Amino acid sequence: MTQAVLIRNADLYAPEHVGMRDILIAGGKIIAVEPHLENVNIPGMETVDAAGRRVTPGLIDQHIHVTGGGGEGGWASRCPELNFSSLVKGGVTSFMGVSGTDSMSRSIENLLAKVRGLTVEGASGWMWTSNYAYPPATITGSVKGDLFAIPECLGVKIAMGDHRSSFPTDQEVLRLLSEIRVAGMLTGKTGFLHVHCGDWGDAIFDPLEAAIPKGIPAKHMRPTHVARHPQVFERACRFAKMGGFIDITTGGGCWMGSAADALIAALEKDVPLDRITFSSDGQGSMPRFNEAGEMVGFGVGSIDCDLEAVRSTAEKIGLDKALRPMTATIADALGLTAKGRVQPGKDADLLIFGDELELADVFMKGRRMMQDGKVIVKGAFEA
Q: Can you tell me which residues bind Zn(2+) 2 (predicted)?
């Protein structure tokens, strides 16, 4: 059973700035959040003095290649799997596993196994079924089947507007959205189409926008990597103002500079803050192509860029707003009702930061994973 913990003297961002609070954790849940908690006596309880440091919800990253991405450069270019301690060091307490270009050696069954493994180790994990391909690659043989039978599956991923995609037609996209919507209705999951966005904005957003007047709400459509190309970004901002959510990648390139710059640019275009999310593309391949479309190099994405994005965004609009794309907003967007906020009844996923927003402590479902900047709980095969 998870040990009870009382965090005292926390400068709480829940993610809104609440001020000084004591936080009681027991059974993996937040039990109480009060200005001062008196006479708390739980056997074995640990007391942590935050000493006025900032305490926030854990980050939620909806796009991590937990089984490793890549492969575009041949056999030696397959990216390594994610280690559990990388989640801890990145402050990511909840995640969604995703597959990418490689639909041959990276199976969806392997993705599910990795998501479950990281969850056993202490994080909270879900997944997108399929990868870049259309028709989708699934475990049960259908999109409806995966959403119905696999609790961790919240939606389906495809690629659009990208030379590595399968170039689905508008009708095929509409049919897939309809299947997702019906499966969501039957399972209570909502159901989402998570879209890897390439560089051709019209090829991505024309089919999505065309589906809305046909009865498919924008809430089912989740384009990501929307700030890598100017035309895609313009169309994404328009889509968000129609009621959709858009996802800015914290790593892997942004045509205007950084994820923080992209968020500010979206706000300046009157996109509501609560329609914008962040994700890392962690463990994904970062290929570089020349003008002829030939790959000339590649790297591996890191989830450390999530904390960097929060810090740089906080400098521009304040920490309370900077946290929202990876806490309350993404929790609401995915229907993760126990996540994203520091409130009684929510999961005890908490981060404690130092004066310079350096990560000091991490709690996942009430269990301390980092203490004083050092990872104290590692994965099964980590030294």
A: 157, 196, 225
